What does this fold into?
Amino acid sequence: MAKNDLFDKDLKVINIGLTSFKDSLEEVNTDVMQVDWKPPAEIDEKALKIISDNYSYIKKENEKSLKKILNGTPFLVDLDIAIEVIPGMKKNMILHAGPPINWDRMCGPMRGAIIGALIYEGLAKNPEEAEKIAASNEIEYSPCHEHGTVGPMAGIVSPSMPVFVLKNEEYGNHAYCTMNEGLGKVLRYGAFSKEVIEKMRWMESVLYPALKRAVNELGKIDLKNIIAQALHMGDEVHNRNRAATSLFYRQIAPAVIKTNDTDIAVKVLEFINGNDHFFLNLSMPACKVTLDAARNIKGSSVVVAMTRNGTDFGIQLSGTGDQWFVGPAPIPDALFFPGYTKDDANRDIGDSSITETNGLGGFAIAASPAIVQFIGGAAQDALNYTREMYEITEGENNLYQIPSLNFRGTPTGIDVVKVVEKGILPFIDTGVAHKDAGIGQVGAGVLSAPMEPFIKAVQGFAGSLEKKKNKNNYKELS
It folds into this structure.
């Protein structure tokens, strides 16, 4: 277009800045398009150069990680008691969600869940006694992720709790998770009332043995197949599990009836049928057992754990072993239950973002657009959230597909380098716990992961590459 013709034509604008500029132009009927561009995060130039110099190597190693993730075959193979099967579990140990944390820094709902667990274990008679024990040196706290385990919200696992046992049949590794209690005032949200403890004891004495008998009768249950079907039926298997729970119910029900007395079978099936989130505690370890197989690929910048403890948000990379990269956990944008507001909300909490790490949950929210209604969003927003996640992942899933995106595979294999370079953060949907112990769930919503852990991870990853290079140079000299 010639300069002299510029003002003879209608103005068309592409805005890459604040959306308020777009809004002002629209008010005067100007044709404007908003580009959702984000500047890259600020990071040490030396770290970026190391990564740039090793680009081909990283790409090759990330492909190895992605292949292991895509080839994973998670099966439910058994149920057992935590201390009998979870690696490293001890009688005085309590596992928790998120990166490492001590009692002094724990949030209200995590403290509440620990109080409930101590009463459940018979180590305390009341909340006051439990809190005193919890704050002492008698109890050892450790992240679920460091023991092949995941737990929703507070994620508390104590020695006597029944757990699902999953096996990745392709690679032979295992993962574990407790059973889902339902919604409302439950232990994982920090509630510890008499009713909460009674339900947990019923789950241990009735639900657990009944399901163990049923699973042993079936031999194993293919969870990957259930998840793939559920995505076609409106679930994203983090905040919405109705279809997956129904599919699991269809598989397990005949075996429950066959292997249990009628009264027990009826109570067990009624419990599962009345709990739309029952499958969450299967989708989480299914993702955990899949991602753990992709650990310890030295040059890979793929994220294998992304989790929160209600205080901190932490991630782990395939290429940096068990090292944690941590920053403050954000507070979700949420639809709150009547009588509650954002002022009541705790910071984001739970291992359930392992689903997003494996390309589900918020990464697959296009399959479950109703979830964005929590924050007043529209179906198109859900499609946009998922599309954006393709920008920060290594590839697409070969089985988990989204109908509304023409059966495109879900974005899979978060690349921490892409997150930082593009300034695009992982999108997570989540439940919201009250910030005070003993109250429970107060809402559900969505959020973006904080940038700080990803910046630290890129710098730590670059350091591991440099260390490997120096080690190789030393070997050549000697």
About this structure: Residues 452-477 form the longest helix (26 residues). The CA atoms of residues 99 and 329 lie 11 Å apart. The longest strand covers residues 393-402.
